[in-house]
Amino acid sequence: MYQPTWEAVETISRERMEQLQVERLQSCLANVKEQVSFYRDQLAGTDTKGVQSLGDLSRLPFTNKQDLRDNYPFGLFAKPMSEVVRIHASSGTTGKPTVAGYTANDIEMWAGLAARALFLAGVTGDDIVQNSYGYG
User: Fold this and answer.
1) Fewer CB within 10 Å: N-end or C-end of the chain?
2) Cβ contact 49:26 at 8 Å
3) CA gyration radius, the chain
4) pLDDT for 79-115, tens place per residue?
5) What contacts 78, CB < 8 A, 6 or more positions away?
6) In sequence order, what DSSP letters do the residues of the chain get, joined into one string?
7) Per-residue confidence (pLDDT) for residue 53, from 0 to 100
């Protein structure tokens, strides 16, 4: 049976997609600015509502590998550990391991993203997929 889309978001206009991306970016920036002291400092003086287009990303500071190391292990988490259900960590071969924590909602969104990507690539329920990517 042919299923034209996995989720409705796949068929929205480019203009609406960019609007949705900007809305979600604004929400993410406001959240980390409120919840994570590192980002509060990094974004001090930045009006997160001033991000009005994807082009505005170039005005935002980058988070680099050293920032991850300096805030090891959990300093960049925006949620309390009681909400973290999965942790991924690199091996740390070039320094301290990099750690990422995920909530149940993160895992659900991640699964949905992977499902959409696989569906768009033509993968069906009859196929076998092996995930062999390392964290780092």
Assistant:
1) N
2) yes
3) 18
4) 999 999 999 988 888 888 889 999 999 999 998 888 8
5) 31, 32, 35, 36
6) ---S-SSGGGGS-HHHHHHHHHHHHHHHHHHHHHH-HHHHHHTTT--GGG--SGGGGGGSPP--HHHHHHTTTTTT-SS-GGGEEEEEE---TTSSPPEEEEEHHHHHHHHHHHHHHHHHTT--TTS---------
7) 94
In degrees rounded to 5, what are phi and psi of residue 57? -55, -30
Task: Determine contact, residues 29/61, Cβ cutoff 8 Å.
Answer: no
Segment 4-29, tens digit of pLDDT: 666 788 889 999 999 999 999 999 99
Q: Are 103 and 81 in contact (CB under 8 A)?
A: no
At residue 94's C-alpha, the angle toward residues 135 and 86, to 5°, is 30
How confident is the model at residue 115, as a pLDDT? 87
